[in-house]
Amino acid sequence: MRHGHHFGPPGEEPDKSKWEMARSSARLLKYVKPYWLRVVLLLLLIVAMAGLQLVHPDLIRRLIDNAIPNRDFGLLIIIVLVFLGTILLSSAFRFLHSYYGHELGQRLVRQLRNDLYEHLQTLSVRFFEEKQTGEVMSRVVNDTEVVEQVIVHAVQTLIGSVLLLVGVTIYIFLTNARLAALTLIPIPVMCATVWFFSHRLKGRFRIFRQKVADLNSFVHDRIAGVRVVKLFTGERQEQSHFEDRSRDYYDAFMDAARSFTVFFPLMQLLSGTGTLIVIFAGGWMAIRGGPDVLTPGQLMAFVLLVGRFYQPIGEISRLLGHMLPRSLAAADRIFEFMDESSQFDIPPDATKPHRIEGRIEIEGLSFGYDENEPVLDNIYLDIAPNETVALVGPSGVGKTTLVDLICRFYDPERGRVAIDGMDLREVDPVSLRRHIGMVLQEPFLFNTTIKENIAYGRPDAPEDQIWAAARRAGADEFIRKLPDGYETVVGERGVKLSVGQKQRIAIARALLKDPAILVLDEATSSVDTITERKIQKALAVAARDRTTILIAHRLSTTDIADRIIVLEDGRITESGTQEELLALGGSFAELYNMQRLDAGMEL
Question: Where are the beta strands (DSSP E) in 314-405?
Fold first, then answer.
């Protein structure tokens, strides 16, 4: 069973072959394919700009060799006008290229980001339990932004630089083959430098991207827990922890910076050396005279052409030595998530029920999050349609896990879970969950209006049905007292509301969905006694026409249950009505009487 990729220790770079790097690049290029017309336009603009760059050296040659010696003012005017025209055209082409290049880049990043987010929606609950939220956010937001450089700008830079390099090479060899050959002297050293730094930098940039994710995860976690931090006066401690992670981020960046800050000056030194070789050899030819003698204008034009020759080499070097390793490191991290598969198999012909009655059959069920620590062991349980069953027992005995298996958040290791006779391993989980409503022990609300939170499962629900669901959950009264009523924005995780208010909105959300199976995971655990009574009455009505599973720590909730199941150590130890279990005098009776004593009630 696959539980995700291993990222390795913080300082360890996974061993990736050139084939894997090429595969990542090929996968990225697939995103460019639908926009090939835009890419062609951008390439034509690059060719035009490259061609204009070749005009300037010839204009300088004519200025020095013809216009100045012959005092030809008319030719000077023509040269200046042509020069001006090339500058204006080049500026216009550069504007178009920059604008449409960035537009294309953002289109591709948006599509990559959408695909990644869509894929994340298909992954199981276990994946998100194993990954920090900040880590996921970093890959969806930060890494996709970095990848833009390779899927747009890097490709264009590479093609444009190659075209310019080919054009300049032909030009300089036609101008003076001997001098042109001398310009090639530094090329082997430059190639070796690029090869060395590209391999070195990819590993360092991958570590840096991980440190970015670690910092994001830390900040997200601490902001979400700000109340705990302040309650326990942990500000100084958190500042120290943040500084530690900020220092790790800094160290990782500087480790990469030490490489690329050496790389660029070294490449500039090598290209400058090539230019000096040409200047010396060209000057020597001019001084010596002979058949290869160059005029001052020709020498100046050739030196300018040499600059144009090393310019695309520098761009290609920057691409291969810095931009590509940085982008591919981010791409690897993105595709690691996109290659993640659900922890359970979904058959191609999986059943997609349009309606269910709600009969639940559990046969020989065993499950554990860790293979060596089973949570549930050999569970047998049948729940009839429209029956209300309460799951009772100490914390950690598997009540919520059992419900998660019914919702197919996980698949059992042994045994079978079936609804209406359908083995859930043969059922499409999305279609299954359309028929299941759940209220979590810790209610989660989105940072939007109360109305939208209630209607989350049915966004097209009429307002009167939304209000009706809120009334049944005991929420309508307090909602209407709020300044904006149902249009009140609840804040992140519903922070503007009390825990009890959030719980009632979550219950309303489940009731509006009108599911065949309703799961209430400690649904009244966070409300006062008066509110609890109101909710229990509403739940009793709601449970009449659906299969309902109550997970209860407050055993007063079990009053509405047709049957109570007691779980201990991952096994069912008692089953019956409340009266039967109280008469039995077992674990349920002990817990029930203890809670009544704690509440100060008479036996």
Answer: 360-367, 376-383, 388-392
Q: How many CB atoms lie within 10 A of CB 117?
A: 12
- Sign for the CA dihedral angle at 527, 529, 531, 536 comes to positive
Q: What's the Cα-to-Cα distance from 27 to each of 24, 64, 147, 151, 448, rounded to whole Å?
A: 5, 51, 12, 10, 36
CA 126 to chain centroid, in Å, comes to 16
SS3 label, residue 240:
helix
> Domain holding 490: CATH number?
3.40.50.300
Count Cβ neighbours within 10 Å for each residue of 382-408 and write b for 16 or more, e otherwise: ebeebbbbbbbbeeebbbbbbbbbbbb
The encoded tokens of residue 344 equal 């359970």
Domain assignment present for 1:
no
Count of CA atoms in the C-beta half-sphere (13 A) of 180: 17
Structure tokens at 343: 């922890």
Q: Judge if 212 and 270 occupy the same domain.
A: yes
> Per-residue pLDDT tens for 211-267?
877 777 777 676 666 656 665 667 777 788 788 888 887 888 788 777 767 777 787
- Residue finishing a domain among 491, 514, 537: 514
R_g (Cα) of the chain, nearest Å:
35
Query: How many residues are given for the chain?
Result: 603
CA atoms within 13 A on the CB side of 244: 8
Q: Domain for residue 382, yes or no?
A: yes
Shared-domain flag, residues 483 and 596: no
274, 186 contact by CB (below 8 A) = yes
State pTM to two decimals.
0.69
In the structure, what pLDDT confidence band is assigned to residue 563 with cuts at 50, 70 and 90? very high
| Domain stop point among 304, 338, 372 | 338
Q: Which domain holds residue 457?
A: 438-514
Give the separation between CA 405 and CA 338, rounded to whole angstroms.
25
Q: Which residues contact 135 (CB under 8 A, 6 or more apart)?
A: 213, 214, 216, 217
Instruction: Identify whether residues 462 and 553 lie together within a single domain.
Output: no
Element (H, E) at 423: strand 422-423
Cβ pair 150, 280 in contact under 8 A: no
Can you spell out the DSSP letters for 121-154? HHS-HHHHHHS-HHHHHIIIIIIHHHHHIIIIII
Residues 287, 150, single domain; the answer is yes
Span 447-475, pLDDT tens digits: 888 898 898 888 888 999 999 988 888 88
Residue 392 scores a pLDDT above 80: yes
Q: Identify whether residues 470 and 399 lie together within a single domain.
A: no
Whether residue 97 is predicted with pLDDT greater than 60 in this model: the reply is yes
Each residue's pLDDT tens digit, 460-515: 889 999 999 888 888 888 889 888 899 988 877 667 788 778 888 888 888 888 88
Beta-bridge partners for 489: 449
